[in-house]
Amino acid sequence: MLARVTGHQLRLFNSLGRRIENFAPSADVVGLYSCGPTVYSYQHLGNMRPYVFADTLRRALRWKGIPARHVVNITDVGHAVADSDTGEDKLEVAAVKERRSVEEIAEFYTQDWLDALAALNVQSADVYPRASTYVEQMIEFAKRLEDKGYTYQLPSGLYFDTSKSPGYGTLAMMDIEGQREGNRVEIVEGRKHKSDFALWRAEEPGVRRIMRWNSPWGWGAPGWHLECSVMSMTLLGDHFDIHTGGIDHRELHHVNEIAQSEAYLDDGQPWVRYWLHNEFILLDAQKIAKSAGHTLRLADLVESGYHPMAYRLFLLGGHYRSQLDFTTAAMDAAQATLRRLVARVAPLRPFPRVDTLAAAVSLLGIPVDATGAAIGGDAAARGATYDETALAYIEAIDAAIANDLATPKLLATLQDALRDPDITPDGLKVVVGAADALLGLRFDDLEPAEVDQRRPTADLSPEELATIERLIAERTQARKEKNWARADEIRDELDALGVQVTDTGSGPTWQLR
Ligand code: AMP
Ligand code: ZN
């Protein structure tokens, strides 16, 4: 009977067509593929958004009783600098710079990323395939495209001829001619159209790559787009339901994944039905891009006294399709909200496990009638004896998550429930358990003392604040003038005031000890 409790139809914004659509799984287990990190450096704060977003999606599917298999790739080869076809491999550049092997680079930054995911309470994917272990399959994939006449060979490698792909660029809604002529600046000798992309990147004569494989097109390495098509199909089947990634992938990477995959399958079906993209996190109104030198990381926030869950809360406080400005003020607000929420929910523990809507309805003791219409309908007519108020909140939570993962609304609903005098203690526990099954803010075990280990800056008087800010500005100036002695002197003064300064890619941040 409980399986019938479906609540609100899950609706998601499909980038393919740019509209909200009902989500209808095509298989018993939904295949979900998320483009993962290129592990040549630390993942910055913006890079973490795609995984918290995909985690929210997974939690939403589970809430709706839809089993999913989640694959997140790790790009440890093939991603050239500036997303180009002919540039150097990002991993190899990092290896030379850091005087470490590419394997060490990949291992180190993969582990750092996994640690950050764990700190953000992102549930593990089912598989984290590494591109370098799928190169043989990528070569086979490219061979098939070659046999089908979709490719041409140049000294620099094997290229996909985008003019042979009838729907090329549909995802990006691109003007094909415009794209072919303008947009991309990279000049590749002999390339037929600017939108054509490398399936295989051959070594230049006399230049030996560090990571190299032999192929019918010479020694070299796969193009960046190939790995996602190959690994997703290998692990999820030829067609699967959902593909996610950052919004920047909508215009190039995913366009090319679709073109080569549909050419490979050649079955007249769309390769993947739902394409979901998260918007960017902005720092100083710019993309926090590693290439622009901004590398503000989760570890920097933690060092500044913020809890990782405060960053998760900051992310969930915005809708995944909205750009979000990362500012100290916004982080302070998230930390304060987290502190309040945890202080409020801690005395209510333990919470029941409420991973699904069906579980919530069952825990509230709601009779499910023959049509399964537990949510909505006339409670009085059913002779209700359960907590009506709690049910209304569960319904609101369900409505929010089903509406394209409206986490800001879900958070607001939770806060309303926590303030509501009419809800029963048991009903509230079910509501908090349900909200946290979707939000993943660790309401079940986060200790108030763990959240906040620093003195809040709000405790400072305006004079103290002005002094600290003046000293920080003087220190920045001294550093600019390379007057290290003066800079150190100021740091000591700040230290004496209990202020700890951290220099980040985007300037100094500080907190009280
Ligand atoms: P990369 O490691 O550069 O391949 O990026 C990993 C993921 O982070 C990709 O899905 C990007 O689209 C995404 N991404 C990169 N920068 C940001 C940002 N500032 N905000 C949100 N997502 C981002
Ligand atoms: Zn990808």
Bound molecules: adenosine monophosphate, zinc ion
Question: Largest beta sheet: what is the strand line-up?
Answer: 4-3-9-10
Number of strands: 15
Pairing-aware structural class of the strands and helices?
A: alpha/beta
> The biggest beta sheet, please?
4 strands, parallel
- Cα(first) to Cα(last) distance is 55 Å
Unreliable spans: 370-374
> Quick check: average pLDDT?
89
Q: Give the helix proportion (percent range).
A: 40-55%
Note the overall shape. flat
Using the CA coordinates, give the radius of gyration: 26 Å
Work out the helix count: 17
Instruction: Provide the β-strand percentage band.
Output: 5-15%
Keywords:
four-stranded antiparallel beta sheet, 17 helices, 13% strand, flat, binds adenosine monophosphate, binds zinc ion
Give an account of the 3D structure.
By secondary structure, the protein is of the alpha/beta class. The chain has 17 helices and 15 strands. The strands form 5 sheets. The chain has a 4-stranded parallel β-sheet with strand order 4-3-9-10. A 4-stranded antiparallel β-sheet has the order 5-6-7-8. A 3-stranded mixed β-sheet has the order 12-11-13. It starts with 10 loop residues before the first strand and ends with a strand. The site of adenosine monophosphate (AMP) has 16 residues, from α1 and β9.
